[in-house]
Amino acid sequence: MADKKPLVDKSQAAGSDALDKKNSNPKIQDIEQFKSDATGQALRTNQGVRIADNKNSLRIGARGPSLLEDFILREKITHFDHERIPERIVHARGVGAHGYFESYANHAKLSKAGFLAEKGKQTPAFVRFSTVQGPRGSADTVRDVRGFAVKFYTDEGNFDLVGNNIPVFFIQDGIKFPDFVHAVKPEPHNEIPTGASAHDTFWDFVSLQSESAHAVIWAMSDRGIPRSLRTMQGFGVHTFRLINDEGVSRFVKFIWTPKQGVLSLVWDEAQKLAGKDADFHRRDLGEAIELGNYPEWELGVQVIEEQDEHKFDFDILDPTKVVPEELVPITPLGKLVLNRNPDNFFAETEQVAFCPAHIVPGIDFSNDPLLQGRVFSYTDTQLSRLGGPNFHEIPINKPVCPFHNNQRDALHRTTINKGQASYEPNSIDGGWPLETPPAAKDGGFESYYERIDAHKVRERSPSFSDHFSQPRLFYRSLSPHEQSHVADAYSFELGKVKRKYIRERVVNEILANIDLELAGTVAKNLGIAPPKKPSVKVPEPELQTSPALSQQTLLPESVAGKKVAVLVFDGVSDQHLQQAVSWAKQHQVNLMLLGPLSAPVTTSKGKAVEVDGSIKGEPSILHDAVLVPEGSGIASTFLENGDAVHYLLEAYKHLKAIVLTGEAAKLLASLPLKEDAGLISGSNFSSLEGQLTEALKSHRVWAREGSIRNIPA
Ligand code: HDE
Q1: Would you say the CB of residue 234 lies under 6 angstroms from ligand 1?
Q2: CATH top-level class for 467-553?
Q3: What are 619-634's pLDDT values in tens digits?
Q4: Which of 91, 98, 107, 485 is catalytic?
Q5: Is the pTM of this model over 0.90?
Q6: The CATH number of the domain covering residues in 563-707
Q7: Could you tell me the sign of the dihedral formed by the alpha carbons of 261, 266, 270, 273, in that order?
Q8: In whole angstroms, what is the distance from residue 487 CA to residue 574 CA?
Q9: What is the CATH architecture assignment of 71-397?
């Protein structure tokens, strides 16, 4: 007689099973905020079959072997086995956000691009910020260049502006890119270091390839360690063309300027963050958007008339050069606002495919040989990364305008093309889809009618040969504290280089040509004889300094979006706390209450206040400023708490604003802290808030920098 399966109502079963069932069936109204497409839906296989048991594989007897027949198990594991796709060879670590671009005006005189044709015209956009060197799981705050890639979903097709947070690149010709990337990536024998350029192969390459000197000094400056992705400029790097409706072309450089100011970390902070919060930048961006502090950038162009192409003492086709703003000011075009976090990291941020060749009518390439190399590379790389040529069908990559052509089939095709004619010309479908002739408006894409009359050569233009006058201009344009950070960064990185001859080559053949004093400081730090003169003759740049290159000229106008910690203990003054809360609300500052534990603290009036975290768990490196408010016995309670003392000393060492109110000011007598423009104390918060706002706008108290070397934090 055949066995009959006993009927078991699993929801009644005893033990953990019953508990699991209970927990896995929450009421839909309880999870409204996390609602997904699956809310209220049955669990099914990919073939649509309802699954009765997602906890046990099919086996012979409860303790017996599993069965190959278990298609539910096999489908689940097979899909899982293939969840990863190859990470990007460079820029693997990234974070994305949605938003929109809004044109300030009708820019038809400059470009016939539709997204620039109307004041107030909004175009959806997706941005991906990235580091260059590290893999997908590397830390956010390493010293590196940041990618700043923007996809504009325009009515006339996608336009990708795939830029960086520095305006120059390491090489002049695409043919050197694989060499550069092999040199900067972790070394091949041991795959070290992760997310850092402080190693022999990088410095070997860049010291032999002096065209990289300019990009390297930008990476060694504070630009290489941004405070936030919201506080970076973005640059198209190459010279592009804008073409207007009369077919007139002008050269342009694209520049994004953040409303949040251009701000950086300090090196000690960046290194600690890499361990304590490897997701610091992506968290910061996501939180700001979540809180409604939408990051904003102004897009501008530096416009160079065709007849002025050769007017400068550098070649505008050379991607290792900036066009100083003092020579060509920025014309604002519009603003980018990021206002929505992606719903799914993989589907959007990981699968987005940018390409500098994605341009629309009204925009065109210049003959920058690096740009020409990029135009090929990006689509090519997606073939292996996204598994075939249909990656434009992935929702994040799909144009918002309709698109039809005769391309068919291939891996992962999702479009179901109807009809029989997939060729051109055809008559059986009336010839469709048809070409659109170029026109001033809504025309087909037409390349700029450029005449080129020259020999086919493998040759670098002599106008690309000066590699030092612009790094010199950059260095001279920095404020003293920025300059000293540059010297510190070279000294740190070269200190990690094992081969002495590489260190010496950087000092003698690169730095000596940029600035002898800089070379001398780095040489002294490394124990190398300071060079006496440059190794090549460096032409003097047309400008002695370009103030626009210094971050000091790019501070924010407001403090919106800053993160300020308030260290609270039992007995904290309700009044002082309340004053801080209303100041934060007024200025859109994100106030974080941190207690000795993550448990609530009791105020002087006996009120229990929830905290946002503990002093130990949310260290000072996560915040822009700190407030210790009045409380009964606060000074002695504080001094007994090592984490709190460390917090304050570390914030001081990192040149942050510190506010001590009421009795908390007594801490000045016990700790090695000196009052300055950013270390403010007084009887109540309200009398100090103006000073705090100003200190936060300045970002750091640079005047303190000279005196903090002996602070132990
Ligand atoms: Fe890239 N670059 N690159 N690059 N690049 C890639 O494309 C390449 C260059 C930049 O968030 C890759 O989809 C070559 C300059 C950003 O998805 C790859 C050359 C600038 C991103 C590639 C350059 C950039 C990339 C890797 C020299 C600043 C990330 C994955 C000719 C203007 C985009 C991918 C994202 C990504 C090639 C030089 C910026 C391999 C061959 C110059 C922001 O195709």
Answers
A1: no
A2: mainly alpha
A3: 999 999 999 999 999 9
A4: 91
A5: yes
A6: 3.40.50.880
A7: negative
A8: 46
A9: Beta Barrel (2.40)
